[in-house]
Amino acid sequence: MTAQDLDRLQLQIKKETKLKAKTVNSILAAVCIPIREAFRVGRVSHNPAQKFRGLGRDDDPRGILSSAELKKLFAEPWETEAHRLAVALSHATGMRLGEILAIGLEDITLDFEEKPVLWVRKSWSTVSGHK
């Protein structure tokens, strides 16, 4: 196996699956780690993963809504008031959905001047619940 073989495998996965570069890089890391370990312990004489390079990022650009986009978003009817409030809170604070979903009554307090404070201490996901 050579670094070129790893390059070909990487490009084949990218082309055939349409996965993002980050995911393809993770797949190839799963291939390269055992190769590196086999070289380290002397099971193979060369390490083709040494010269291997992952793909550059190809994430979709993310941006902040413009004022016009935000006005249009809030002018539309919402399925529930909770959804509208979650989006408004995210826009105002930068909180992520998991952080918003994890808010409990214990996370809303008053500071020493009796001003409200929202504590972001945990997150929630469908996979691991509260974390």
UniProtKB/TrEMBL annotation:
GO biological process: DNA integration; DNA recombination
GO molecular function, one term: DNA binding
Keywords: DNA recombination
Domain Tyr recombinase: 60-131
The keyword Nucleotidyltransferase belongs to this UniProt entry's keyword annotation: no
InterPro entries listed in its UniProt record: DNA_brk_join_enz, Integrase-like_cat_sf, Integrase_catalytic
Protein name from the UniProt record: Putative transposase
Organism: Treponema primitia (strain ATCC BAA-887 / DSM 12427 / ZAS-2)
